[in-house]
Design a protein that fits this description.
single chain; alpha+beta; Immunoglobulin-like; 7-stranded antiparallel sheet; 3 helices; elongated
Length: 146
């Protein structure tokens, strides 16, 4: 009887560990230690972003099947459309933060677009990195996919 109870306890512990480690809704901030150590450079980039005056607007729309189209519009300080040399994004559904989609956006009708392969409805966090010449612009945005 004692051996059975001990085996059940060990089995339950293994099951709990596997369940906890396979939960797609649970996430840990990637590389959080280095981000904390480099906080000064993050704040310096934030000041450069403000000095540039650029703005970004992100939207997600249902595409085909489970995919969605991410569209980002960049404008300069005067509100004119901005042509960037490259635009990259990281997108994650808030409810499924363990799955981060790294995307390269391509020019598309006055903005930039990419396809998010598996897209859940709800709130999404989108981190943008746009470069033009020596200028680098970053933005963290939240948008909703319905």
């Amino acid at each position: 009887a004692i051996v059975t109870v001990l085996l059940l306890q060990v089995g339950f512990g293994i099951w709990m560990a596997r369940t906890a480690n396979n939960d797609p809704n649970f996430a840990i901030e990637p590389d959080y230690y280095n981000r904390a150590v480099n906080w000064d450079s993050t704040m310096a980039q934030s000041r450069r972003d403000k000095a540039l005056g650029w703005q970004a607007v992100a939207s997600l729309t249902r595409d085909t099947g489970r995919a969605a189209a991410l569209r980002v519009v960049l404008v300069d300080a005067a509100g004119r459309p901005l042509a960037a040399d490259s635009v990259h994004a990281e997108a994650l559904a808030v409810a499924h933060a363990g799955t981060v989609h790294t995307l390269v956006l391509t020019p598309d009708a006055g903005g930039y677009a990419a396809q998010v392969p598996i897209a859940a409805n709800g709130l999404w966090d989108v981190s943008i990195r746009a470069a033009r010449g020596r200028d680098l612009f970053t933005a963290r945005l939240r948008t909703e996919l319905r």
